[in-house]
Amino acid sequence: MVSGKGGVGKSATAAALALASARRGRRTLICEVNADERIPPLLGHAPVGPEVTRLEEHLWSVNLRPAEAMKEYVLMTLKLEALYRAVFENRLVRSFLRFIPSIQELVLLGKATWHVRETDDRGRHVWDTVVLDGPATGHFVSFVSVPQVLMDTVPPGPIRRDAEIMRGLLVDPAITGAVLVALPEELPVTETLELATSLRERVSLPLVGGVLNTWVSERFDAGMFEQLSEWPRLKELARAQHAAAERSRWALDKLQGHLGAPVHKVPRIYSEQFGREQIERMSRALEPLVAGSADHG
Amino acid sequence: MGERVLEEALRTLEVLVCVGPGGVGKTTVSASLALQSAIAGREAMVCTIDPARRLANALGLEEFGNVEMTIPQEVWSGADLSPGAPLHAMMLDMKRSWDDLISRTASEELRERIFANRFYQALSTVLAGSQEYIAMEKLWELRNDRGYPLIVLDTPPTAHALDFLDAPDRLLGFMGNDAARFFLNPAAKAGRFGMKLASLGTGFVLKQLSRVAGGQTLEELGAFLSALSSLNEGFNERARGVKALLRHEKTGFVLVTTPAPERLNEVIHFHDLLVQSDMRPVAIVVNRVHQAPDAELSLQAAALDGTLREHVEATIAEARLLADRDQLGIRRLQQEVKTPLIIVPRLPHDVHDLRGLAATAEHLLTPARG
Fold first, then answer.
1. Do residues B146 and B196 share a domain?
2. Which stretch of A123-127, B158-162, B306-310 has the lowest confidence by average pLDDT?
3. Which residues 119-138 of A have a C-beta within 8 angstroms of B?
4. Of A29, A61, A265, B247, which has the fewest Cβ atoms less than 10 A away?
5. In terms of domains, do B302 and B159 share one?
């Protein structure tokens, strides 16, 4: 499950992780959740919509949307399409379901975790890896807390039972791992550390790694600045590069010191466009994170 | 082309709502606009959600949520600025806002019943989606009860633009169409609502629903909705008020984004939704735009030697690529939306004090690109 503050490259990281996983020969499914589909286009494919669709070798994608997920969820319980239409496409019932935001999240998370458990007719797991491009920091804790909230809120019954199953999957370190993405800036680093704390304390979601995206390496040393003193504008430019490298170093130290999981650097990519080629580069940088992931299949 | 749209907006509008994806600097833009209004002599309130701690400190905001603060004189003089009118700021506390809303609309006995209900506790604290509604609800309250000449609202980062614009409708729709009452007391109301349910009896629909949700869940939810529905009138009035306020001629929206290509689809989509919903986008602020290094720098670099030259040239090339990428994004926005663009260059440091906000404001007030 990938999360991070908005704008840090969360979806790109999810795409890169999925690609790295597929390259290792693992059957990999990308789940986007209630989003304007971004990952297949980033990988150079057409958007796939709400059906699980093959993108390339070992790699599939699906965009989970509340309406379809709700229908599937209800159909699994009620079994009859006609009944579904009569009850759940009723105007009053629909507005009722819309008003309770957690129901949406429950069915989305429910669908994603169902894929984790999905087996073929010989009882084998269909997916070796499911990569979930989760909501951004603020919504992520609410999203993964839904099973717990429902267990605390809802009396025994089908919803409660499903919530318990989901929670069981989410807190199992052999199955689930959160990957938190940050940039070398103060706010994203602080938010990432706060998110890690909330996940640990409120959700018990296992954390497998941090990703420090747009890492900038040191390039200029004191001697070079000395040489540049005749060129104040070049020196200013070099200073700006140096400041970015220092921020990267600061962020790495801070994350390594407090995250409680290994931190992986993804070098900053300079290009006009952002697409397949750039994701491939990120994917190579994230190889160690994927190689270290636990098997459950 | 060349209009000073935000200067005009700060002078004439009464509500400015800053919207956009997470992590683009919405809070800084909101605070800068309010600050500029105060400097120009028009009293303003900026209502922010979870601002960066340092910015909060710079504004003199402490931890207490939902308290309206006035920026003290010493903070102004410390930044070497003198306001023409007071600047106020407030941090929104979700839980407190929900509690306030219930307290204002419910009798004391009802209030206790609602506060004690598990569904309410979940709704008001952890559940996603309620943020959007309460932010706008707070705006309505500030607008009606407090009389600030200008309110700038910083909104929560939204996964879905629609959730946000939809929030009052969602509540209004729910309260307005008898759905709440339908779930209250099925046995008693069955006859009355049965006819509306596609000729199926209410009892049947509820039975199927309870197979999915669990019978007791529906009962407890019913109790919650029953308590809420007696507030129907108050809620309805407020939700209608929020809806009207967002479309009021004195209300404008400022879309904030960075020029990175991956943000733009979302921003264009949000912009279209605003227009379709009769809400007025005043400007699109393109924040943190990289400036291109000029040709003179390359000439200077060519005079260097060895590793130093390589490193300097690499740095110039990188800066140029980022600037080109940003210009590509800006051109795309210019082609796809009619709303004026305000370009704010990337500042070398994080904005964390009044001076930084004032510097940002100067860029915000520059003439728009058409």
1. yes
2. B158-162
3. 135-138
4. B247
5. no
Instruction: Give the whole-number percent of chain B exceeding pLDDT 70.
Output: 69
Please check whether residue B40 lies inside any domain of the structure.
Answer: yes
The answer as to whether B369 is a domain residue is no
What number of residues does chain A have?
297
Q: What's the CA gap between B124 and B101, in Å, rounded? A: 11
Interval B341-351 mean pLDDT: 85
SS3 category, A30:
strand
When pLDDT is averaged across residues A230-242 and rounded to a whole number, the result is: 93
B187 and B316 share one domain: no
Q: Residues of A numbered 237-276 whose beta carbons fall under 8 angstroms of chain B's beta carbons: which are they? A: 237-238, 240-241, 243, 270-274
B232 to chain A, minimum CA–CA distance in Å?
14
* pLDDT of the residue at A137: 76
* Same-domain pairing of B311 and B279: no
Output B343 or B261, whichever has higher pLDDT.
B343
Residue B198 lies in a domain: yes
pLDDT at residue A296 in the model: 40
Whether A159 sits inside 8 A of B217 (CB atoms) is yes
* Domain limits for position B311: 295-324
Strands A59-64 and A53-56: antiparallel
In terms of domains, do B210 and B313 share one? Answer: no
Same domain, B272 and B314: no
Residue pair B16/B282 in contact (Cβ under 8 Å)? The answer is yes
- Each residue's pLDDT tens digit, B185-216: 444 344 443 334 333 445 555 566 666 566 56
A277 in B contact zone (CB under 8 Å) = no
Taking the C-alpha atoms of residue B301 and residue B269, their distance in angstroms, rounded to an integer, is 43
Record: contact B23-A8, CB cut-off 8 A:
yes
Least confident of A69-78, B300-309, B340-349: A69-78
Report B:271-300 residues touching A (Cβ under 8 A). Answer: 293, 296-297, 300
Over residues B107-141, the pLDDT tens digits come to 787 788 777 766 666 565 544 456 667 777 788 88
Residues B140 and B30 in one domain: yes
β-strand partners of B281: B253
Interchain pair A159, B325: CB under 8 A:
no
* Cα separation, A20 vs A26, whole angstroms: 9
Same domain, B83 and B195: yes
- Among A12, A99, A101, the residue with its CB nearest the CB of B128 is A101
Length of chain B: 370
User: Is B160 a member of any domain?
Assistant: yes
Looking at residue B128, its pLDDT comes to 43
ipTM of the complex: 0.83
A4: enclosing H helix or E strand: strand A2-4
Contact A208/B264 with Cβ under 8 angstroms?
no
Mutation for testing the B interface, residue in A8, A39, A89, A154 having most B CBs under 10 Å? A154
